[in-house]
Design brief:
With 326 residues, the chain is of the alpha/beta class. 36% of the residues lie in helices and 20% in strands. It has a single domain, classed as P-loop containing nucleotide triphosphate hydrolases (Rossmann fold, 3-Layer(aba) Sandwich), CATH 3.40.50.300. A hairpin with a 2-residue loop joins β9 and β10. The relative contact order is 0.15.
């Protein structure tokens, strides 16, 4: 349904500084009815990638395809695409106009796309599918009169009202209480089962990915460094970055791996493996033991292919598979 090939997005630097490579070579596929979790720390390029896939950001190079056709960036083409692919934002309080009732918030998309059917029926149907029942109780309420979970359901209803084929959910439960997160995740799974929706879920939480996703793509500094089925990636992680992210989950065995510092500035992407400046395997001598320490520091890794198979962009992992450097 949705594909990216060698996707790159760079933003101009300030005052003559080098450009920031927010997305720096990504291949990604999303099939119909599939949920893919895009996971990584803040600032690794996840949200920029998601917005580029929706046509909200135009790529510097590479292509986005939808339903087998390349995405076109003319106004009419983008409007038609956004009816089929909808964004669900992290903060429902920020994405809902406080002066609009729930009815107006959900009906906004119908009015933009000049819906010709029964508007009230479409709005109440979307609210019911989003779990706000009976929907008539919510039509004249304002956002401040709702709980956080109810506001997020209104946002989801606003996306569903256009009957899209794809949802891109950017940290959909990050601002919600733990007791409500499970309800929203269960809702997304039910929508996939009932409507056949595909979803790209952007998150920093690998635990969320485990509960909702079919596949996981782990992103670091503009590039996907590990991808595969959720069971493969989260039960047998290969990349040192994925291992570190998993190690800090409450249920993870062993000692948490605390990464030093923050991810580098995307305008100063390190040479070689972009993770090598923080990599505990390199720092503790594991890469040297396999004879790839120099490669980690100097040799860039290829963009991972967009296939359902598990892939890892790591010199140390590759050397372990082949018995030596490679």
């Amino acid at each position: 349904m949705l594909s990216a090939r060698d996707l790159r997005v760079a933003f101009p630097g300030r005052r003559g500084a080098a450009e920031a490579r927010a997305v720096d070579g990504v291949d990604l596929d999303l099939r119909r009815g599939e949920i893919v979790a895009l996971v990584g720390e803040s600032g690794c390029g996840k949200s920029t990638l998601a917005r580029t896939l929706l046509g909200l950001v135009r790529p510097t190079s590479g292509t986005v395809g939808f339903a087998g056709k390349p995405l076109e960036y003319g106004g009419r083409a983008l409007k038609a695409y956004r009816r089929r692919a909808q964004l669900v934002l992290q903060d429902p309080s920020g994405s809902l106009n406080p002066r609009h009732t729930v009815y107006d918030a959900v009906a906004e998309g119908l009015r933009i796309h000049r819906y010709g059917g029964d508007e009230r029926a479409a709005v109440t149907g979307a609210l019911a599918r989003a779990g706000l029942r009976p929907p008539e109780r919510f039509l004249l309420r304002y956002p401040h009169e709702l709980s956080g979970g109810q506001r997020q359901r209104v946002v989801i209803a606003g996306a569903l009202v256009l009957e899209p084929e794809l949802l891109v959910a950017d940290e959909p439960v990050a601002s919600l209480d733990a007791s409500v997160r499970g309800e929203i995740l269960a809702l997304l799974l039910r929508l996939r089962a009932e409507l056949g929706l595909a979803a790209l879920v952007v998150t920093h939480d690998l635990g969320l990915a485990w509960n909702i996703a079919d596949r996981v793509a782990v992103m670091y500094l503009g590039r996907i460094v590990e991808t595969g089925s959720v069971e493969t990636v989260l039960t047998a992680p290969q990349h040192p970055y994925t291992r570190a992210l998993l190690s800090v989950l409450p249920e993870a065995p062993g000692t948490p791996v605390i990464l030093s510092g923050e991810a580098p500035d995307p305008s100063r992407v390190p040479s070689g493996c972009r993770f090598h400046v923080r990599c505990p395997v390199l720092a503790e001598g594991g890469a040297g033991h396999r004879g790839v320490a120099a490669a980690c520091r100097t040799q860039d890794l290829p963009v991972l292919p967009a296939t359902p198979l598990a892939h890892t962009a790591c010199h140390w992992v590759a050397a372990g598979r082949t018995g030596g450097p490679g």
